[in-house]
Design goal:
By secondary structure, the protein is mainly α. It is about 20% helix and about 0% strand.
Amino acid sequence: MAVKSFRRPLGDALDAVPGLDATDDSLEAIDGTDNFDFLLSGVPNVIAKQEWAPYLPNYHAETDVYEA
C-alpha cells in the first residue's frame, strides 16, 4: 500500500471478507502492474500477491477470467 493512512481502512475492509486471509501488506511498489502509473501519481492502490507461474500465460489473454 502506497499510503500508510490507507492501511487501517483497507485492513478493516479485507478483514470483513471471510476466508480471504489477506494478512501480508507492504509499502513496496511493484513495476509491471496496470496500476503502477496511478501509484506514481499518488493514488493509493492494492495489488494482490499470487503465484506468478500459473498466471503469466493467461495475463491479459482470453483465458484471463474470474474464477470463484
